[in-house]
Design a protein that fits this description.
Blueprint (H helix, E strand, L loop, with lengths): L3 E5 L3 E7 L2 E9 L3 H14 L5 E8 L5 E5 L9 H10 L5 E8 L6 H18 L3 E5 L1 E8 L1 H13 L3 E6 L4 E8 L3 H8 L6 E4 L1
Antiparallel strand pairs: 1-7, 2-3, 3-6, 4-5, 4-6, 8-10, 8-11, 9-10
Helix pairs in contact: 2-3
């Protein structure tokens, strides 16, 4: 069961040149489609003189959504090879944009595919890639009598404590790596007076 995902920690850039055309690539970490739209708007403003602003993005951890855009290049010659690089490096929560300044010489279909692929690959080569865990969140409600037992399990198993409200009725939020969910349910299930629920 896959319980990790890969992303980049910060913006990285790359480039590729072919027959006078210059391809500049930008790889961003992103959280949602709204952020993607803002970044695309910013790049189009910064590179307003460029002929094409082609891109691909992937979002999600378990179920991954993606999109590719050729921005006026012949169908599947730009967005698809960019997306192919994201897929082959298993990256998600990322946007990869390749800006093209036309050099006056047509590259042909295979030339375009190669140029966009190489520009995308260069940005990925220059990126710091981070592997993160797929985590599920849980909530526990218990009285002070059960609190020590609950906290001991969380500490012993190295679960990530997210939030705790230790008023009259204790409420604890924590997250568990996907592959350890069944074990967590087995550990907390038998505790009397403990309400254990996945969020």
């Amino acid at each position: 069961m896959k319980d990790t995902w890969n992303t980049v920690t910060a913006l990285s850039t790359g480039q590729y040149k072919e027959k006078g055309s210059r391809f500049i690539s930008y790889l961003y970490p992103v959280g949602n489609e709204e952020e993607i739209k803002e970044l695309l708007t910013r790049i189009r403003k910064e590179h307003h003189a460029a002929r094409h602003h082609c891109y691909a993005w992937r979002l999600g951890e378990e179920e991954i959504r993606s999109r590719a855009n050729d921005d006026g290049e012949p169908s599947s010659t730009a967005g698809k090879p960019i997306l192919g690089q994201l897929i082959s490096h298993d990256l998600t929560h990322v946007l990869l944009v390749v800006v093209r300044y036309f050099g006056g010489t047509l590259l042909g279909v295979s030339g375009l595919i190669n140029a966009y692929r190489e520009a995308a690959a260069d940005a990925i080569r220059n990126a710091v890639i981070e592997t993160r865990n797929i985590e599920y969140r849980f909530q526990i409600r218990c009285s002070y009598n059960e609190l020590n037992a609950v906290m001991q399990i969380i500490r012993n198993e190295n679960y990530t404590l997210r939030e705790s409200d230790l008023t009259e009725k204790c409420r604890i939020l924590f997250s568990v790596r996907r592959s350890e969910v069944t074990r967590a349910e087995a550990l907390f299930g038998p505790l009397n007076g403990v309400t254990f629920a996945r969020l």
